[in-house]
Amino acid sequence: MANRLLNSIPESYFKTAMSSELEPGPLPLINLAVGIPDGRTPEPILEAVTESVYKEENQRYVSFRGKPSFKHEIKTFYKKHYDVDLEDDNIALLYGTKSALVQFPMIFIEPGEGVFLPNPGYPDYGPGVMLARGETYDLPLLPENGYLPDYDSLPDHELQNARLIYLNYPSNPLGAVADKAFFDRTVERFKETRTRIVHDFAYATFSFDNPHPSILESDTNLDCAIEIYSLSKGFNMSGFRTGFAVGNREMIEAINTYQDHTQTGMWGVTQDASAAGLRNEGEILSGQKEKFRRRSAMVTDAFTDMGVPINPIKGGIFGWIKVPSGYDGESFRDYLIQELSILVTPGFPFGSRGKDYIRISLAVEDAVLRETVSRFQQIKHLWQ
């Protein structure tokens, strides 16, 4: 049996949802609860796997902190896209970025210190703070502020005790984005304090009006922030469990030291595949971005024309929809399953401000999204 601390963590909604038996209506099921892009892993990555799996060096332990070849591609990628210069001690390889996001409070804060978490925001940030015996502080993301936090409205005692602040743009689940001016203000606000910034950049590829900035463009001396970059989404590598953290040396060293004791180095094949993805990012990411830009425009326009209140999807791969009067997110999820055979994610796992919302995914084929729009046409009167 697990100890009391682990048993105190609420059960993961997504684990429960994925293992539940569904009872859809008579139509074929449409699953809009998926969180990974559709499509195959790109060929340059698969070719690298085929080649590197036979290399003897990859059949043994590799360097604990990663191959120079993978780190070189990370440095090249960040210099090209964000004009950020990285050294080896600014990089930690990650065995899936979710693990790092959950574990980081456990290895960086002291019990009783606070962590600001976005609300609405990714559900699994919270358990990491609880496992660290920290205090979770609410970071409201409100439509009147463009879903950017208003630091001046946060309680003084929380600001003084906060050791970390988590940000995530493009946002899951909101589809909101941030600009460089916001990151400039954020770095300026916290760089002379004890509070350090973790920016979850999982959806970096999917910013549709302009390229999304890195927070490290604002933290030019890498004083107070790290960025967690996932290869799962933009590179269609979710099954590979690979990504990296870059930025402030103190924060990166905490991750690397922890992994020195808990891992024996990322499998060389995974590193070679990841390096191949970054090396071929021009042909890979442009197609992904255009596919989801097209889908976001189609879904946003169609739902808006129906009178269904959906947030503008400026980035990411999700739509955030206010449910009709008389429902909350959970009851409307059940309604959609029974009446339209559409599976969505209710908003409550994303925080208290998600109670009256649902999240839909764009990570399905275009034809499925068109069918989704057609089915919602049948119930648009619920919002009128």
TrEMBL record:
Keyword hit for Transferase: yes
Keyword Transferase: yes
InterPro entries xref list: Aminotransferase_I/II_large, LL-DAP_aminotransferase, PyrdxlP-dep_Trfase, PyrdxlP-dep_Trfase_major, PyrdxlP-dep_Trfase_small
Pfam families membership: Aminotran_1_2
Organism (species): Salinicoccus cyprini
Protein name in the entry: Aminotransferase class I/II-fold pyridoxal phosphate-dependent enzyme
Keywords: Aminotransferase, Transferase
Any one GO MF annotation of this record: pyridoxal phosphate binding
Cofactor: pyridoxal 5'-phosphate
Domain Aminotransferase class I/classII large: start-end pairs: 29-375
